[in-house]
Specification:
single chain; mainly alpha; two-stranded antiparallel sheet; 68% helix; 2% strand
């Protein structure tokens, strides 16, 4: 029969492991978006041919779901082999995730450079030629209210600007920026800019387009989301450690209970006699004597009752 302590440990372990499975499902859904939606991740992985982050998240989500299924089944059925397997898998996952987190932290600087170059080449060469890059740059510039890589002047040497400047007039201080740089898309003062910063002396450029560059804003946003991702990973690792401890305690309780039952069975007198007789062939097991009413005692009791009856009759 399960004790109150055993029941509490069992339910706590089941809840933690089930939550790990839910987290794994969410991670899998997000990672599939990263891997299969080109418009979503084309800028960050431009010309690298590597979607390593997406595939790592896919593997993480699938692993969490599988281990969660094993753990929940082992806890619900009280199966020691499944509990032992889940403990091993959780320890392995914690080790792999901590190692990967350390490696990812060391790769932050190269990743920043990669993002910086992705935005640079998207502005200089691909804007207006490639639908994916054009869409991403427009979304970034309008979403974060920025223009160009470091400033709006980043568009001065772009192929997009050169195509819109009359032939023979380049190089010139006049250049073209996309509509997504404009504060007001309907403004006629926006697209044609000047390196001196002022197109019309009566209209400061800061009133016409976004002045800040997109590179620092995008990298700052990436750092923020990576920080959230590390925090989320720390929560997952904490859940896995707690689930590992609870599963190990539950496994210990089950093994301990099984050994106690076996030990009591072996040490009982009947089991001892059976074991002794089985170890020595030819010797039958010792029979336990069963007491029966004595015939003599029964006869004497009957005789005394007869005498007593006669004496009572004589008195009457």
């Amino acid at each position: 029969m399960q004790t109150r302590k055993h029941t509490i440990i069992k339910w706590c372990a089941f809840i933690f492991i089930f939550n790990i499975g839910v987290i794994g499902t969410v991670i899998l859904a997000v990672s599939l978006r990263i891997v299969f939606d080109n418009d979503y991740s084309y800028l960050l992985f431009h010309e690298s041919g590597s979607y390593l982050a997406g595939y790592v998240l896919v593997a993480t989500g699938v692993s969490l779901m599988i281990v969660s299924s094993i753990g929940c089944t082992g806890v619900a059925k009280g199966n020691p082999p499944l509990l032992g397997l889940s403990v091993f898998c959780f320890v392995l996952l914690v080790a792999v995730q901590v190692t990967f987190g350390r490696v990812a932290y060391n790769e932050l600087a190269p990743f920043h450079e990669k993002v910086h170059l992705g935005i640079f080449w998207a502005i200089q060469r691909h804007y207006g030629n490639d639908i994916a890059n054009t869409t991403v740059i427009d979304l970034i510039q309008q979403g974060w209210k920025c223009c160009g890589l470091n400033t709006y002047a980043s568009w001065s040497n772009s192929l997009y600007s050169k195509r819109h400047v009359p032939k023979g007039a380049w190089p010139t201080k006049t250049f073209i920026v996309p509509k997504s740089c404009c504060i007001d898309w309907q403004s006629d003062l926006c697209e044609e800019m000047h390196l001196d910063g002022i197109r019309n002396i009566n209209t400061p450029v800061g009133h016409v387009l976004f002045m800040e560059g997109c590179g620092p804003k995008v990298i700052g946003a990436i750092d923020y989301y990576i920080g959230c991702l590390f925090g989320f990973g720390a929560v997952i690792v904490s859940f896995e450690i707690i689930a590992t401890i609870l599963c190990a305690v539950l496994l210990y309780e089950l093994i301990k209970g099984a050994y106690l039952i076996k030990f009591r069975t072996i040490k009982s007198p009947e089991s001892t006699d059976l074991i002794a007789s089985s170890e020595q062939p030819g010797i039958p097991p010792r029979e336990i004597p069963v007491s029966h009413p004595s015939t003599t005692a029964y006869s004497s009791t009957r005789t005394s009752a007869t005498v007593t009856g006669k004496a009572f009759s004589s008195l009457v």
